[in-house]
């Protein structure tokens, strides 16, 4: 590749091309997880579909590996890679709400904060995650779970259609009626099949929710976990609640006497009325009164942004995950042991319920092959200080190794680091892997899109 090629490429883009010599290069190449430091060859900030096509043609012509960056939030840093061309979608940002059809069209570079903000004005929402700075692109293509999962399913269950620029630079629509195999594959198969420039989602009537955390001392954690494992498998679908080990942040609304205290908690989200929520939670309060609770009616975007401040860009992250069918007494004992040893203020362990509405599709309906699992577990070592990297990583690994034998086998692809290995990816897709590999061979036969949790094309199938 000559400098003249780069100049011509730049001239063809409506968006921007960032080179290593540009003053903004260092800022633009940053990864959300500061543990990862990568130096791409070029960053193409695409303004539209045509720019994405141009970038793919350029990458192909000059044999440059490409990475795709949506919200840039991936903990494994998969939006950016060394010596690659980053196809950055952050300029493709729009949210068009159709109140009649009750759908929303979302640009490929949006974050969930963009979507929540635009939809809230119409009393609507799409099920997503628990942090609003996360990208729509990566979260959706990997599955997507969060506060609305038990009521409305995974994010992929609300996806109606997507605009995709394929590995040969051509454009395709993926939906139940157009390229249905591609549509199947992108609902969980990650960024393996093309660059999604636009998502069309079904929306739901969610405006106010009753939500927030309840916290208990670690001494009660065994009892709370045992109560929770029974409760969440039979609770009404309107009630979502993820379990966590956490350290209480030294800030309001938490009382000073709890600041920096390691505790366990459940973060609730109820999509009905406060009286109904209180009726459901009353037995819990009566028998196991929380040391602190901040459970109240609030606008849905307030819940979605509740943890944004705690997890800004630029922290060190290392996480390990598993799907979980059952929480045995032995598994709970190990959780208590490792959860009590949280290595830093930001480190945590979350058990996200993925039952309720998320159980309605079958394992074969989408690539997400753990429709029968009850939880998605993630053990997260986080700290601002690079000097603590080894410490938080060792804690997360030890915790995960202890609990892995009690897991269901695979893990949520979006909770994996880069390079966890082919076996982990296959274990996650189970019987769906072969179908994904065949669709990959059709749409991306030479594995052009391989900076991801990679599905290798299966040519002889
Ligand atoms: C703090 C934090 C909280 C999180 N909370 C949740 C949660 O509650 N629920 C949940 O489900 N997940 C959660 N995640 C995981 C999250 O889903 C993944 O990190 C996801 O990859 C982020 O997507 P992104 O677009 O921001 O990432 P990026 O780094 O931009 O992209 C990651 C990968 O996704 C693919 N990709 C992204 N956009 C596109 C696109 N438009 N077209 C094609 N491929 C694309 C590419 O393969 C890319 O390499 C969280 C992550 C973090 C760091």
Write a concise keyword list for the protein shown above.
binds flavin-adenine dinucleotide; eight-stranded antiparallel beta sheet; alpha+beta; about 450 residues; globular; five-stranded antiparallel beta sheet
Describe the structure.
The protein is of the alpha+beta class. The protein has helices spanning 3-12, 25-28, 49-61, 112-120, 136-142, 149-152, 180-186, 221-231, 274-287, 300-304, 329-339, 389-403, 422-429, 432-443, and strands at 16-18, 42-45, 66-69, 85-88, 95-98, 103-107, 159-165, 171-175, 195-202, 208-217, 239-247, 262-270, 292-293, 296-299, 316-324, 348-353, 375-383. Strands 10, 11, 12, 13, 14, 15, 16 and 17 form an 8-stranded antiparallel β-sheet that branches. Strands 5-6-9-7-8 form a 5-stranded antiparallel β-sheet. Flavin-adenine dinucleotide is lined by residues 32, 67-75, 78-79, 89, 108, 129-131, 134-135, 137-139, 141-142, 144-146, 190-191, 195-196, 311, 414, 451-452.
